Amino acid sequence: MNTLQWILAGFIAYSLLAALLRARGVLPEYIRVQGPLMTVHTRRGRELLDKLASPKRFWRAWSNIGLGVALVIMVGSFVLLVYQAVFIVSNPPAPTQVNQPQNFLVIPGVNDFLPLSVAPEILFGLLVGLVVHEGGHGVLSRVEGIDVESMGVVLLTILPVGAFVEPSEESQRRAERGGKSRMFAAGVTNNFAVTVVAFALLFGPVIGSISVAPGVAVSGAYSGSPADVAGISSGDRVTAIEGTPVNTTQELDAALLSADDQTVTVELDGERTVSVTRELVVAGSVSGNPANLTVESGGDPLRVTAVNGTPVSTQAEFEAAVGDSRFVRLDTSVGERTIPVGAYITNIAKNESLFNAVGTTDPLIITALDGARITSSTDLQEALDRTEPTQTVPVEVYRNGSFQTYDVTLGENPQDGNGFLGVNIFPGTSGLLLTDFGTQEYPAGTYLSLLGGDGGDGSSGVANGLTGSPLQLVYVSLLLPLASVVLGIPNFPGFTGDIINFYQVGGPLGFLGGGVFLLANLLFWTAWINLQLGLFNCIPGYPLDGGRILRTAAEAVVSRLPVDDPHTVVRTITTSIGLTMLASLLLMIFGPTVLGG
């Protein structure tokens, strides 16, 4: 069985055992069990709530603000969820990792987006969120004269996952509708307040105390590549090649190109050195590439040993052997291949620059742009960096078995303002990712920029296009755990494990040393989880706070209408909206798999 199945089996066994103990009267009255959840009730602590509730004018004003925010979010969430549901039904998207069953469980290590490495920080954020949420209900209950029957903690089997306050149902019925609405809104108000404070601290002094460490961060090495053979792996930083410092992938590539010897000395982490004997390998491939080569995960690496009969072992030797040739013969470890050499375009966006010239979205190979010979994706990007929007340039492409030249009027690249073709480019040459080194870069600078820090030269265009105002920073931070799905970069779990080696501490909180990373993780996940709790509880469906506020608002409106049975009307309104929200949520979660799978 996989991990998810073991966890579900444990929940079932725990639930059955708890039910048996309850049936036999073994469990005391103050312990209640419902499935894998256990609640421990106590009447102590009510005096503390009374003391906290003493500044009643402040708490009423505070909750009035929260109630207004909650109402706006309630309306917005209803419209958004219904719109998404209609869109999914009319145009079902393909299922993604988000739609996998295990990703609906908020369990670190089981949920793909909640890594086990930050389970303590996630649990801390969840506990903070639930305590301030339920504490808000408790304080406002006493402010509005609503009795509290009990308080306590919630356990998932034996793990504490939250707290609760249990207001008296009779007192709630006697309370004014405005008071009840403020009490229901108090929890989400506190969650949003914690989110604001946590993000303010994170984006301010904490991220300001973190910078990118020197060197090129390594997320891994391609299997069987020279770097892999030399022992370079995830968590390393390449700080120099043959004594030349490198801080970006471009500098790393340039240093490797300028190194004459096949074997190069590589400095890692500024401390140790390894020798890397370079050979040209195919680290990746795109389906349909002209060489008809496929790189299989875990298999032996494909090697390129000669170009047009000239032995090659490095990228520089490959480019020299290709020269101005449009076609070359490759000697590989799986046989000889003859291919056109250029930058492989996997997709052409409709109504963008290249599409307007060639009239197709099918893959093709660009072999020249504005007079410059293009042999790889790097050549194409460098050529585009020398162009400007609205500039018309000749572009030579290989398609349908022949070379053709088109005059293309370039658009504007939204990330750097240079000329733009509107295409997706496969890294490497002719659909083959060729490398004589083999490391994969970890986007350390990009993540730091997305969190409001200084990513330095390692920050990518993704960060430049998304960061700006504080609201943008909050929005982007919420996406980071889902970055692989939304932003096209690896998910960011926080500053953990090998990732810490890619950063260094200084600035206002430098005296904390490595504690800055722990503080950043606590603030990040506390803010993330509290905002999720606040937004989720604003959904206008019972028994969520949004559903309770909806019922109170419906009662207030219906009480002013000339109807014979106001309770039935209120029940019809709240049930209809609740069922609509439930159906919309189910469609968002399961619709892509059921309808678009």
Automatic annotation (TrEMBL):
GO terms for molecular function: metalloendopeptidase activity. Its main location: membrane. Keywords: Hydrolase, Membrane, Metalloprotease, Protease, Transmembrane, Transmembrane helix. It is found in: Endomembrane system. Residues 210-272 form the PDZ domain. GO terms for biological process: membrane protein intracellular domain proteolysis. The chain crosses the membrane at residues 6-23, 61-83, 113-132, 183-204, 473-493, 505-528, 573-595. The keyword Membrane applies. It is a multi-pass membrane protein. Gene3D superfamilies: 2.30.42.10. One of its GO terms (cellular component) is cytoplasm. This is Membrane-associated Zn-dependent protease.
